[in-house]
Amino acid sequence: MKNKEMILIKSVALEGTRRCNAKCDHCMRGEPQNLDMSREVIDNLLERKNIVIMKLIFSGGEPLLNEDLIIYTIDKIISNKKLVFQIEITTNGTIYSSRVVEKLKEFKEYLKSQFSDFLDTTKDDKISCIRISNDQFHQINSDVLEKYKQEKELSVIKTGNIDILDDGLLLTGRAKNKTFGRDFEYHLKAINVRTIKKDKYFLENDFYITARGDITTQGDGTYEDMDIINLGPIKDFKFIDKKKEKLKKYKKLLTN
Ligand code: SF4
């Protein structure tokens, strides 16, 4: 792997679909939409030759309603020999996808066979991960949970209850209308880039790609908010150029 202008991305979340099979009271997204991320968005991300991704997250909506996109993405990672250290599916725990489970296992095998020199073997169990939202608002299916837990090659993480008084995520979308009150303030931040070496950079922010293919550093708003406030489509987005023109432009935008 060449190091020329190499960019390490800390974490990127993909809004694989805006469809959802639940109606949680605390949903910060608002009402679901019949919209899936296209494969072109994945191509735009993974066909960049100079990126390494520390963590790739599938979010939504309910990402397992668009399992084809997850399969496509992992196949693309493998066929393009991309270095992605971890894949995580954040699900509401109502759908068991044997196709995705098998693909996650394949990803783990791929990573261990191709990039063993880069891997921290003590974190081996975190390579392929299913994160199940198990707070007081989600209604997970215990049979589904048990089936995932049977898969010893996967890490299954259950999230716990949410403190509704402190958690800003609960103040937008359906939550705002139903239960918890005040307006959510949407903050757009420039993507921070740190230079590691002369020709090596690290994107410090977690960033998010919406189902429409737009980049944002704030993945916690309603779909409508994110469609208005974002940094533009990934197809037009250079993560860095040497003069940092893009970054300057966004900083200017934010201070206006
Ligand atoms: S919180 Fe998640 S699972 Fe619940 S309605 Fe919203 S997108 Fe769906």
Could you describe the 3D structure shown?
With 256 residues, this protein is α/β, with parallel strands linked by helices. The chain has one domain (6-255). It contains seven helices and nine strands; from the N terminus they run βαββαβαβαβαβββαα. Strands 1, 2, 3, 4, 5, 6, 7, 8 and 9 form a nine-stranded mixed beta sheet that branches. A hairpin with a 5-residue loop joins strand 8 and strand 9. Helix 1 packs parallel to helix 2 (67-79) and helix 2 (67-79) packs parallel to helix 3. The longest helix is centred in the middle third of the chain and has 17 residues, at 98-114. The radius of gyration is 18 Å and the shape is globular. The N and C termini lie far apart (40 Å). The relative contact order is 0.18. The model is unreliable at 178-182 (pLDDT under 50). The chain binds iron/sulfur cluster.
